[in-house]
């Protein structure tokens, strides 16, 4: 499917599928597979607003090389390997056919399931603000801002959300 | 060969200062005593002045002795603190963690207070308190409870619940001298704040900040520090009142995947990429890594629960580009998704679990001429803890009188 051939409805569906697939790949720990969904000019950020200091904060900010480096180093780190499970609902998709891109807003809930015993706890809630490149054969994630409402994240995480 | 139950329970064959009985991390009675003998009598770090830049700006603070406080900048620019407790029927006055209030008004019956703690508004005052002519209550008796407050050492707001306490300068002493030029030449500003609530004892987090033997936990530190020249010469320096410093070392950030030097955005007097860490009794740390000052402050919530507040700071005068650099540097290893902070928290969370489930003694016994892997920083902390508590950390069941800190 190219953007010219696609109907608006096709594009909307393709964007939603891209977002859901990005969640599935991260849930599976398939980081190379997640990167395949991303454009070369990817920018990935995790941000939050702090009412304590009344400021915007950035807790992760990487381009594509940065994300590759992060994934490459993961096995060398001591990390909590309790799996994270993302539950996403794509709220809005706005396709700009002229510019060959789309913007999407997705509500995300992330659960953490303890390796020992399997109890599941809520880890974080927030939204994905995504920019999607529609110029190629398949849509690609060019920008993802994980905007967290949750700021108390316990021991934190080494994994992108 | 593994040890038997009997052997496991035996005190380690070491000097009394070189191990800790894990009951100091689990016992409810000891925790209550710490509240009374340590937290209620020591300077605690409540927030940073940049969190209340304008007159009538406020921040709330949960004091570990079990009191909620309001920290507020007065119209005279002085920072004061009060119990966040309405003198009427005891409601919480301010619900938001920060804000600006010319009058701090209790939502319940609308009594209001100014930034100096005076009661300045009381609906239907005369009708309720002066019905017979004479007033039964004076507003002077309805002010807020004020708490000793001092700002300093990088613009941090310190509070002390003890009205008869020593000045902050006497408590900190020379402990921050090494980095005072960096943090006190021009105003700093907090650019990241978060809190981690962890099921562990606050002392265990402080211990982690006070020993560098655990650089083995961090691949980042193994590559950027341990493998670099000068690492094993870093000295641990104990200061009076239980504080300790880890001497500075040049860090090679480029040795980690995607890393680079931090010289573009520094602090006054910083050259290159030095790293200094100073731990203050009973639970704060100033951690300066060239472009970012991270300050940890703990709010112990129970024997096995602590809220650790993390602030990252740059200079107030930062350009947009300098601030962006600091934010990027900060997130690599610090913040909730940083590579090092998660590892430290993972370890201290594991300690919390082990200490509740079978751990009996922990060892602080490495001696290496006070260099980086010497565990003198922790020994020094527990000497002060023992003195204040009147109990040896290695044998906390007995009361002892310790005038001066036991030898570290
Ligand atoms: S409790 Fe605050 S005004 Fe009554
Ligand atoms: Fe560490």
TrEMBL record, chain A:
Keywords: Oxidoreductase
SUPFAM superfamilies membership: NTF2-like
One family name in Pfam for this protein: Ring_hydroxyl_B
InterPro entries documented for this protein: NTF2-like_dom_sf (IPR032710), Rng_hydr_dOase-bsu (IPR000391)
MF GO annotations: oxidoreductase activity
The UniProt record lists the keyword Oxidoreductase: yes
Superkingdom of origin organism: Bacteria
UniProt record similarity statement: Belongs to the bacterial ring-hydroxylating dioxygenase beta subunit family.
The protein's name: Uncharacterized protein
Species whose genome carries this gene: uncultured Rubrobacteraceae bacterium
Lineage, top ranks: Bacteria, Bacillati, Actinomycetota, Rubrobacteria, Rubrobacterales
Automatic annotation (TrEMBL), chain B:
Domain of life (superkingdom): Bacteria
Cited PANTHER family: CHOLINE MONOOXYGENASE, CHLOROPLASTIC
Cofactor(s) annotated in UniProt: Fe cation
Assigned keywords, A-Z: 2Fe-2S, Iron, Iron-sulfur, Metal-binding, NAD, Oxidoreductase
Stretches assigned to coiled coil: none
Rieske domain sequence ranges: 44-126
Gene3D superfamilies, A to Z: Naphthalene 1,2-dioxygenase Alpha Subunit, Chain A, domain 1 (3.90.380.10), Rieske [2Fe-2S] iron-sulphur domain (2.102.10.10)
Record-linked Pfam families: Rieske, Ring_hydroxyl_A
Name of the protein described by the UniProt record: Ferredoxin reductase
CDD domains, per database record: RHO_alpha_C, Rieske_RO_Alpha_N
UniProt GO molecular function: 2 iron, 2 sulfur cluster binding; iron ion binding; monooxygenase activity; oxidoreductase activity, acting on paired donors, with incorporation or reduction of molecular oxygen
PROSITE patterns per the UniProt record, alphabetical: RIESKE, RING_HYDROXYL_ALPHA
């Amino acid at each position: 499917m190219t953007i010219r051939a696609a109907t608006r409805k096709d594009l909307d569906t393709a964007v939603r599928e891209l977002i859901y697939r990005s969640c599935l790949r991260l849930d599976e720990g398939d980081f190379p597979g997640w990167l395949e969904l991303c454009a070369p000019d990817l920018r990935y950020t995790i941000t939050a607003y702090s009412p304590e200091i009344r400021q915007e904060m950035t807790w992760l900010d990487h381009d594509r090389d940065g994300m590759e480096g992060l994934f490459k180093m993961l096995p060398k780190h001591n990390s909590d390997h309790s799996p994270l499970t993302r539950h996403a609902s794509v709220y809005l998709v706005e396709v700009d056919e002229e510019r060959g891109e789309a913007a999407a807003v997705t509500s995300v809930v992330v659960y953490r399931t303890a390796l020992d015993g399997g109890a599941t706890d809520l880890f974080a809630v927030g939204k994905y603000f995504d920019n999607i490149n529609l110029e190629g054969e398949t849509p690609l994630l060019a920008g993802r801002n994980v905007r967290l409402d949750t700021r108390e994240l316990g021991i934190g995480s080494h994994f992108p959300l | 060969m593994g040890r038997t139950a009997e052997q496991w329970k035996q005190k380690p064959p070491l000097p009394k200062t070189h191990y800790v009985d894990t009951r100091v991390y689990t016992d409810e009675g000891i925790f209550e005593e710490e509240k009374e003998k340590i937290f209620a009598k020591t300077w605690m770090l409540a927030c940073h002045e940049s969190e209340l830049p304008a007159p009538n700006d406020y921040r709330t603070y949960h004091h570990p002795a079990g009191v909620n406080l309001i920290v507020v900048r007065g119209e005279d620019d002085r920072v004061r603190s009060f119990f966040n407790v309405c003198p009427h029927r005891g409601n919480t006055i301010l619900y938001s963690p920060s804000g600006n209030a010319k009058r701090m008004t209790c939502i319940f019956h609308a009594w209001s207070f100014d930034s100096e703690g005076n009661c300045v508004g009381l609906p239907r005052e005369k009708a309720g308190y002066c019905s017979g002519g004479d007033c039964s209550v004076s507003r002077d008796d309805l002010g807020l409870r004020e708490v000793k407050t001092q700002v300093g050492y990088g613009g941090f707001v310190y509070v002390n619940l003890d009205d008869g306490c020593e000045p902050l300068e006497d408590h900190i002493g020379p402990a921050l001298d090494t980095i005072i030029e960096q943090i006190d030449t021009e105003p700093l500003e907090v650019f990241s704040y978060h809190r981690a609530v962890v099921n562990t004892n606050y002392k265990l987090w402080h211990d982690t900040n006070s020993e560098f033997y655990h650089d083995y936990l961090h691949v980042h530190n193994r590559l950027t520090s341990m493998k670099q020249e000068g690492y094993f010469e870093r000295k641990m320096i104990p200061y009076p009142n239980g504080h300790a410093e880890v001497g500075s070392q040049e860090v090679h950030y480029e040795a980690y995947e995607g890393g680079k030097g931090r010289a573009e955005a520094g602090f006054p007097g910083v050259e290159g990429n030095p790293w200094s860490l100073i731990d203050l009794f009973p639970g704060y740390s100033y951690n300066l890594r060239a472009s970012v000052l991270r300050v940890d402050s703990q709010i112990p919530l129970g024997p096995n629960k602590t809220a650790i507040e993390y602030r990252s700071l740059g200079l107030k005068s930062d350009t947009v580009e300098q601030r962006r650099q600091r934010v990027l540097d900060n997130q690599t290893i610090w913040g909730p998704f940083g590579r090092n902070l998660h590892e430290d928290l993972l370890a201290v969370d594991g300690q919390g679990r082990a200490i509740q489930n079978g751990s009996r003694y922990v060892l602080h016994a490495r001696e290496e001429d006070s260099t980086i892997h010497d565990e003198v920083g922790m020994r020094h902390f527990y000497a002060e803890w023992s003195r204040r508590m009147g109990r040896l950390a290695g044998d906390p069941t007995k009361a002892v009188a310790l005038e001066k800190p036991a030898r570290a």
